[in-house]
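Re: weekly structure request thread

Next one in the queue (111 aa):
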Amino acid sequence: MADVTAPWVSFTDPAGDTLVVDARVGESVMQVARRHRIPGVLADCGGFMQCATCHVYVDEADRAGLPPMSEDEDMMLEGTASERLAGSRLSCQLPIGEHTTLRVTLPARQR
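Done, posted below.
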């Protein structure tokens, strides 16, 4: 369980199981997932926004605090293996800040 006073990310898999993990300032959500070996975040391109295999659904309550989506991210999300929804983002484009608390759900498929 993550220290609730430090940055953290909650990952919920398609079955509804949730894992809350610590995050480090300066990491991306994708890097947090890889460091904690979260299944379902493939990140084939390593965070260079070239594959869309780090697609996540950001909880509605957490979306307002995120940086705006770039045109490139928007275009990459058109090619995701799972349905694109209102909260769809590429986790490689979501930076962790000092006060980040973020809830994301993983799609059923990344490829």
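The chain has a mean pLDDT of 94. DSSP finds two helices and five strands in the chain.
Next request, please.
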